[in-house]
Amino acid sequence: MRVELDVPKCVASGQCVMAAPDVFDQREDDGVAILLAERPGEELRGEVEEAVAICPAAAIRLVES
Q1: Alpha-carbon dihedral of residues 16, 48, 46, 42, nearest 10 degrees?
Q2: Using CA atoms in the order 64, 23, 55, 26, what is the torsion angle rounded to 10 degrees?
């Protein structure tokens, strides 16, 4: 799986960081999400799927590859 983050759509809510802290972080200056792992391990699938589902801006996408 591959994670895509549409940074311009991000509203800096931090929901992704709470759901999947090994995959997402936030920039210090404005809180916009940062993708830490574009291809996280399968063991993180549940966390990533949760982050996708709860992102208020729909800025995260999970691509099967």
Answers
A1: -140
A2: -140
What pLDDT was estimated at residue 7? Answer: 97
Evaluate the CA torsion angle 59, 65, 27, 50 in order and state its sign.
Answer: positive
**Phi and psi dihedrals of 33, rounded to 5?**
-65, 150
- Separation CA 24–CA 33 (nearest Å): 7
Q: What is the amino acid identity at position 62?
A: L
| Regions in the chain scoring below 50 on pLDDT | none
* Beta-sheet pairing, 60-63 with 2-5: antiparallel
Identify whether the C-beta of residue 4 lies closer than 8 Å to the C-beta of residue 48.
no
Predicted TM-score of the model (pTM):
0.94
